[in-house]
Structure prediction request, 249 residues.
Amino acid sequence: MTAGRAAIGAGPEAAARGWRVVTLEAVSSTMDEARRLALGGAFDRTVVRALEQTGGRGRMGRAWASPPGNVYATAILRPAVPAVRALELSLVAAVATADTVAAFGGTVRLKWPNDVLLDGGKVAGVLLEAMTAGAALSAVLVGIGINVASRPELADRATARIETADADAVFEQLLSALGARVGQWTRDGLDGIRAAWLERGPALGSPLTVGQGGELLRGSFAGLEPGGLLRLELADGSLRRIASGEILA
Ligand code: BTN
Prediction:
């Protein structure tokens, strides 16, 4: 192990919650570290946390600014479900991250599929990568970044950070919330998670613009499908079921 990548270790609190935590000082991206560990046979509920990332990445090929002081973590999950259900973990992680942020105060809302807003600014994001072996799901990498000590200044969107805690406290809270929500999903399926997402999601009927591979779809929010897809009602009354895309407004 080289300097700057030393494993700092898992706290007893994390182990008590069923997580194995590998904490690294600086990495390119915890997604890559988690993938490497998963390929090497890492157990379900292993979490890679980095204190800083030099190549943090977000959805849609964006970079995720990752200076020290914020939370950067990727959980390796090995759920016994068909690969088509992997996407459900996107909502599971969004709800767990919203629970985490809400524990420190403020008004927390969700933007589909998994942006977490604090008092109107983006405070956290989730990046999911599925790993398959043939047609079977071998692991899902659930990457979560939460702004704590700092937030990026972005021209096109408001950002926020948790101002009332440090990254260690937020990370501990995240392990607890993610453990609880993954447990709920494993036991009961997506229904309860979907309901929790909708409590923090947009109001039914509110206008939405969705960007999908160069196409702009304008309509209104019509809820979530049982499997988590976004329902968008277009002006002509037809319904679009959207599996991936970005809410632009
Ligand atoms: C988004 O675009 O909203 C998703 C951001 C996900 C960032 C996290 S930080 C931990 C993990 N490592 C990464 O490189 N990305 C994710």
Notes: The mean pLDDT is 92. The longest strand covers residues 121-133. The pocket of biotin is lined by residues 29-31, 53, 56-59, 62, 64, 72-74, 115, 125-127, 143-145 (CB under 6 Å). Residues 167-188 form the longest helix (22 residues).
